[in-house]
Amino acid sequence: MVFLAYLALGALAGVLAGLFGIGGGLIIVPALIFSFELQNVAPSVATHLAVGTSLATIIFTSINSIRAHHQKQGVNWRVFRPMAVGLMVGAVLGAQTASLMPAAQLKLVIGIFAITIGVQMALALKPKPHRSLPGDSVLAGVGGGIGWASAIFGIGGGSLSVPYLTWCNVRMQQAVGTSAACGLPIALMGAVTNIWEGWSEASLPEYSLGFIYLPALAGIAITSMPFASLGAKLAHRLPGDVLKRIFSVLLFVVGGRFLYQAWGQL
Q1: Tens digit of pLDDT for each residue in 206-245?
Q2: Residue 215 and residue 39: Cα distance in Å, rounded?
Q3: What is the number of other CB atoms lying within 10 angstroms of the CB of residue 186?
Q4: Between 20 and 30 A from 2 (CA), which of 50, 96, 125, 167?
Q5: Residue 209 is inside which H or E element, if any?
Q6: Hey, is 213 helix, strand or coil?
């Protein structure tokens, strides 16, 4: 039954990711935390386990997404290459930062981030393109910051990299495609670091590989990829602005719950 629930979560995350153009991490992390609470996973590791597992699932979804965007010339590989260096270093540092944070603090920052993205989606806030792309060293530095934050939140970084690239006058199709490619180094290095950081944690549940819970990883990976394609198709048929406002309400609820829990634990 637990595995079936993870299959359903993967399907939901895939559809929502396809609908709204964001990684499934914003859905997967809170859903996993709730699931781990029902499974009586130790509260001290539940949030870290959710973040690490979410990053591991993004490895599979990003590969599928990269292939689709590359076929449509939607990935700017010249921009991706210098960013990837920073993304990998930043993801390692971000995963290490998350592992050092108490569960309550980690919930607090995830809650604030969810509410921030909710506000952005509700108000349709977008940076106006008014500058050109910087040099490789700056792109690597920006990638480092995006990788660091994304590994803490358990996301692929699309909600950070797409606004930055569009601000730098990268057309939206390539910004989304390049952002999808950026999710892979974040997920790979973030997942590996979470395995390392959680390797000796005694309170993890059975079938954990460091801070990655293998049954959840398998269930979500199986269904999230095909359902992401379904979500992308639905996005062209349903009113996007209304859907984004509905999703923003969900993010407000999720973020508020995290803040409430964190406040009670601090």
Answers
A1: 999 999 999 999 999 898 878 877 776 776 676 767 777 7
A2: 13
A3: 35
A4: 96
A5: strand 208-209
A6: strand
